[in-house]
Structure prediction request, 203 residues.
Amino acid sequence: MRSVSWVAHFGHETDMHPVDLIRDNSMLVRQKFKFNGVPDNPLFFQGSQNKSVGQRQNQMKDDNGWEIVSTYSTKQAVDDGFLVKVDSVASNEVGIKFPVYLTRAAWDKYVEVPKGMEQLQSLSGRLWDVLYMFAFQARKVSSNFLQYDFISYLPDEGNWESNETLESPENRLNRLVTLKAVIQAQDFDDPSPAIFIMKPNED
Prediction:
């Protein structure tokens, strides 16, 4: 069976990717997608296990008859505001063929225009920076996991995080930012591939 890699997003085929896209709806997504060196668990997003913000309880059974007491879908995460789905026009412009989602934390800090910088920055331009540098680095690898760097223009307000370093001592407004991207099933009931971009400390 032909497998998928970052390179495949840009129209090139490869058989080296560890993710096997088994299109069998009778299996859970976490059973379909095997990640090298990563426990076989579903992906949860920041805050997604907080029932007070809209976690749904779904009663269903898997193939072995075990009851699944709770599921939290990508769609629900978008509805609850924990994920932001990127407009396909923006992702297609940089050559990405699969749907792209950003965690709310990554979107708010690196895509939304910081207060006071509205005359210098635009949301579309900042999103382009995030997506373009992802696409540039993704062409070089064949894994379902990628960490990549890009430069983000942010006010120097003391809110530096562990994934940010000073790009140049001459300009403290430019931060070299590291983000993490994974490719996996778009949803628990949709095995088609999607790209999820987040801060390195998010799951």
